[in-house]
Design a protein that fits this description.
Length: 265
């Protein structure tokens, strides 16, 4: 009010900032100034407290502020607390959207679902007060901005999955990234380390599909597929089968396997 008195209506200026603060505290905790001329455009903006904003970003008390921050926006003045709680807000939006989507869907459907979260239950969507195609318009016009906004949430989700893999595979993931200067980050902030690892789009392919420290190497350690003899334990189940079942049954079992392989081929 001190900086921009003309933005506030006359009665608000007469009653003072304490009056504005009391009105602002009424849920959802925002005071709006409408029809404000600024640099050749007319804007509407809301005033809230950092505590109220962070609370809604973390807890979705009303989704009034958190929902608006599900969409692309430009940060004019950064704040560390808001930046941290906004990351939680974006991750929550991704999780909530995924729970309502089928197992396979295009990326645009995910962004549309996220953008629609804050409009669910909004009475204005039932009245001629909002464009029914608003969500679709938002996503179509800001597709690249949505990708940029939620890019960080996807590595964090992948990082959580990576960290929950069996320990044998987790150790191989770490070995794949050894020598890249991430060891210090692992000791300092394990979450940041796994987010960095998960942000590498090739990591899952390397770990799950190929390389001497990959998932196949757990099953068949001679992962360069050369003709050198693999360690004994790669063949030990088959050798133990001959001992435990006998030669006759082992031949019968192997013949059945070969028959299935041939049919499948």
């Amino acid at each position: 009010m001190q900086q921009h008195p003309s933005h506030y209506p006359l009665h608000a200026r007469v009653l003072g900032s304490s009056y504005v603060s009391r009105v602002q505290e009424v849920s959802p905790g925002v005071w709006f100034n409408a029809y404000v001329p600024m640099k050749d455009v007319t804007i509407k903006y809301g005033v809230t407290t950092i505590d109220n904003l962070c609370s809604d970003l973390l807890n979705w008390r009303t989704l009034y502020l958190a929902g608006r921050m599900h969409k692309p926006l430009r940060i004019i003045k950064d704040d560390a607390r808001v930046r941290l709680t906004q990351q939680v807000n974006l991750t929550s939006a991704v999780r909530a959207a995924l729970l309502t989507l089928p197992s396979s869907f295009p990326q645009e459907d995910l962004f549309s679902r996220i953008a629609s979260i804050s409009y669910a239950g909004d009475p204005r969507m039932l009245l001629p007060a909002e464009n029914r195609g608003k969500v679709g318009n938002i996503v179509r016009k800001q597709g690249p901005q949505f990708k940029e906004l939620y890019h960080g949430s996807f590595p964090r989700a992948r990082a959580a999955l990576l960290r929950k893999l069996p320990d044998g595979l987790v150790q191989r993931v770490k070995a794949n990234f050894r020598g890249r200067g991430l060891e210090a980050e692992l000791e300092k902030d394990e979450s940041a380390y796994w987010t960095r690892v998960a942000s590498d789009e090739e990591v899952l392919r390397r770990v799950l599909d190929e390389g001497e420290l990959s998932l196949p190497s757990l099953v068949f350690p001679d992962t360069d597929y050369s003709l050198s003899l693999p360690p004994f334990y790669a063949f030990s189940p088959s050798l133990k089968g001959i001992v435990s079942a006998g030669l006759g049954k082992s031949i019968r079992y192997s013949s059945a396997k070969i028959g299935k392989w041939w049919s499948g081929s």
